[in-house]
Design the sequence.
């Protein structure tokens, strides 16, 4: 159906040239409001009627050559306290697609409209705000010019107000964003972008005409917001967020008769040192309300990276989180306050206090400086530890930057003479292939990053160099990389090379090859070509080829991965990828993917090669019931593996979802090496009673970890950015359903602006 709408519009537009495209840099003026703005979904105030209109929107997807068939109009005004935005989304009476009423909704599964602002006018950093026709809010931070999905951090949370009203031919939303809610400079020119996702029709449109291969809302395809009246001078902004938490816990593996109860309190504070530079303070923080991690079955030799969800670490987190390269991130905030316990899952390490200074010094300079102090947790073999992480970034040209990062991890009260058996593996250095364990009372990393982005988004390059310092300051402790990408309408090509020295050690970072390779050299290429069939149910299709080779520093090849596939993306939101894959591996240490304790291990120096085919797909996400997943079958080291993973979900609009996530591996290795059917089952129930009351129930059964986990989280947002939580979690033995441990906690938070 969609091509029947778009084709006539394309012909009409091309024939008559009725509309001019809004190009990057298009200006939109904002004036001070002379009267009161009421959030009522009716834009009849004189200030709205006199405001500049951001109209004439163009489609970005599924085609980028025509005017949006359902237009959108945006307006802005302000007073001393609020930035006001109104958006009129013209529509018909077809039902809106609303996945749930939960805040920070899934962009890809909801009709929504929003805007991105760059208050530093650097075309690199900013904030975004979005809303659905049901009035569900989402906000977050933007880094890296907004050119990729990873540029948008939805975990940043703040206080703002909105109203949405649905009419037969449109829906109107109004935003009131307190100037206190985000950092800005009193400049007379900001970056501004608007985009709308009409999911029920699978159409994405934007105020600035954006080619289909680029993100709508990215700052290279933004306009300029001109302040006809002076921006309100930023005021001293202090927010206090105290909490009270408590609960009961029982560990049946230690003493089933003993129950621990606890009542604790703490406080977070946000202080605006300058209008765009913020100081975050925390004392005795508690993260018990944070959503549980989704478990994985990891059959590789490498550590899996889970995302950071704790609020304290999120604002301006890109500065530290992006330092380095995927093969060697210099800082990973989950190293602070989290450690794997005896079940293989993460347990919390108590944090005493922390401070973080982050934000923009001016248009060209940004900084992030963090210090955290953890308390000892002897049950996990961890002494008290201090963490320092600092990044200074300088922006130059239009969208490029250079940054310097320093990270310091200090273990307190650990001496060379202490018995290592009492300590967690994270506090000593053990080079691959060596039996020597050297305790590290400190670990430091110093690095520099360079990012270059062309003004039209075609070219992107990043590179970095880093060195680590441990006791003894061993040589071969450097790391570096270079990446380059070229992306246009039909072609997307990238290449990368990275080096990790055999003694490079970033204990407060993320180096997946640590304790796997004695150093590594990796070369990677990725090439894709896109076709855009006309008069078809296919939006894009085309081949994708990837190649990766990994060497250890002596030149020996350890891993080779090749893949060739073909991808289809359909008008109805479904997608399909079919690929052929070749793998080669020469081991640098003993390894068994199932269980090294029960089965014969592959030995250091042995090599294996195998082939497999894979199919990845997604059904129409607009349907009430939909599925996404992938399957693969073929060789696996000296045997075979059949893998099936995916998620089946059903939507009861708009009150929530029920989903079933499955990861199944039928691994059959040579005799003695193991043959197991490994599976992870994760049903999830997400109920949104209102846009302020939520209940999430998550169950996970992982037979590789021999564990069943139940997590229930109730949340009541009784005021903006203020919450009451009740969380229940329990781990069971699968064979007997006997409880290993359980806990019931509550947490009450209140956001107070001074």
Sequence:
């Amino acid at each position: 159906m969609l091509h029947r709408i778009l084709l006539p519009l394309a012909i009409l537009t091309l024939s008559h040239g009725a509309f001019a495209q809004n190009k990057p840099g298009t200006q939109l003026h904002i004036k001070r409001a002379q009267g009161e703005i009421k959030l009522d979904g009716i834009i009849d105030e004189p200030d709205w009627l006199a405001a500049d209109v951001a109209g004439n929107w163009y489609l970005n997807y599924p085609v980028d050559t025509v005017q949006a068939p359902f237009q959108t109009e945006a307006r802005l005004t302000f007073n001393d306290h609020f930035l006001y935005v109104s958006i009129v989304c013209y529509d018909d009476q077809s039902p809106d697609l609303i996945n749930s009423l939960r805040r920070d909704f899934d962009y890809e599964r909801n009709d929504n409209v929003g805007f991105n602002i760059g208050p530093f006018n650097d075309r690199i950093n900013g904030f975004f705000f979005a809303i659905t026709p049901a009035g569900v809010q989402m906000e977050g931070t933007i880094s890296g010019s907004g050119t990729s999905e990873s540029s948008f951090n939805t975990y940043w949370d703040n206080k703002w107000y909105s109203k949405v009203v649905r009419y037969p031919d449109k829906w109107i939303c109004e935003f009131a964003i307190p100037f206190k809610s985000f950092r800005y400079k009193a400049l007379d020119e900001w970056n501004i972008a608007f985009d709308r996702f009409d999911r029920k029709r699978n159409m994405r449109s934007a105020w600035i005409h954006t080619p289909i291969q680029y993100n709508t809302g990215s700052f290279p395809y933004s306009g300029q917001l001109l302040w006809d009246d002076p921006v309100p001078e930023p005021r001293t902004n202090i927010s206090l967020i105290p909490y009270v938490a408590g609960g009961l816990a029982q560990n049946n593996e230690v003493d089933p008769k003993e129950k621990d109860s606890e009542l604790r309190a703490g406080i977070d504070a946000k202080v605006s040192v300058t209008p765009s530079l913020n100081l975050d303070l925390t004392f005795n923080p508690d993260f018990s309300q944070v959503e549980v991690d989704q478990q994985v079955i990891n059959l590789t030799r490498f550590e899996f990276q889970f995302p950071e969800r704790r609020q304290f670490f999120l604002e301006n987190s890109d500065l530290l989180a992006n330092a380095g390269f995927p093969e060697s991130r210099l800082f990973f905030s989950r190293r602070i306050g989290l450690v794997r316990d005896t079940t293989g899952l993460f347990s919390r390490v108590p944090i005493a206090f922390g401070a973080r200074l982050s934000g923009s010094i001016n248009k060209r300079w940004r900084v992030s400086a963090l210090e955290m102090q953890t308390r000892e947790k002897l049950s996990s073999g961890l002494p008290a530890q201090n963490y320092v992480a600092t990044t200074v970034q300088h922006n130059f040209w239009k969208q490029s930057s250079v940054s310097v990062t320093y990270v310091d991890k200090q273990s307190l009260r650990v001496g060379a003479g202490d018995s290592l058996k009492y300590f967690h593996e994270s506090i000593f250095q053990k080079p691959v292939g060596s039996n020597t364990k050297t305790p590290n009372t400190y670990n430091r990393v110093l690095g520099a990053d360079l990012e270059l982005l062309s003004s039209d988004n075609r070219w992107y390059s990043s590179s970095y160099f880093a060195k680590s310092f441990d006791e003894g300051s061993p040589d071969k402790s450097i790391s570096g990389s270079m990446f380059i990408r070229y992306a246009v309408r039909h072609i997307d090509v990238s290449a990368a090379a990275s080096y990790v020295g055999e003694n490079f050690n970033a204990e407060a970072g993320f180096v997946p090859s640590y304790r796997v390779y004695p150093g590594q050299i990796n070369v990677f290429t990725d090439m894709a070509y896109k076709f855009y069939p006309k008069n078809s149910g296919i939006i894009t299709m085309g081949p994708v080829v990837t190649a990766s080779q990994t060497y250890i520093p002596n030149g020996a090849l350890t891993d080779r991965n090749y893949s060739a596939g073909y991808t289809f993306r359909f008008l109805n939101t479904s997608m399909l990828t079919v690929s052929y894959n070749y793998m080669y591996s020469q081991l640098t240490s003993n390894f068994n993917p199932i269980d090294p304790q029960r089965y014969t291990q592959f030995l250091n120096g042995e090599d294996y090669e195998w082939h497999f085919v894979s199919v990845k797909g997604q059904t129409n996400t607009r349907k009430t019931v939909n599925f996404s997943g992938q399957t693969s079958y073929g060789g696996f080291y000296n045997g075979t593996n059949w893998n099936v993973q995916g998620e089946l979900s059903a939507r009861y609009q708009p009150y929530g979802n029920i989903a079933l996530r499955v990861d199944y591996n039928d691994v059959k290795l040579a005799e003695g090496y193991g043959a197991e059917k490994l599976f992870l089952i994760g049903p999830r129930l997400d109920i949104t009673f209102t846009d302020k009351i939520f209940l999430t129930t998550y169950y996970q059964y992982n037979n590789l970890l021999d564990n069943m986990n139940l997590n229930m989280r109730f949340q009541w947002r009784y005021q903006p950015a203020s919450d009451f939580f009740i969380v229940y979690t329990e781990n069971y033995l699968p064979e007997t359903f006997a409880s290993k441990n359980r806990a019931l906690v509550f947490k009450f938070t209140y956001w107070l602006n001074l």
Q: What stands out?
A: Residues 2-227 form a domain with the Immunoglobulin-like fold (CATH 2.60.40.1190). The radius of gyration is 27 Å. Confidence is low (pLDDT under 50) at residues 1-18. DSSP finds three helices and 44 strands in the chain.
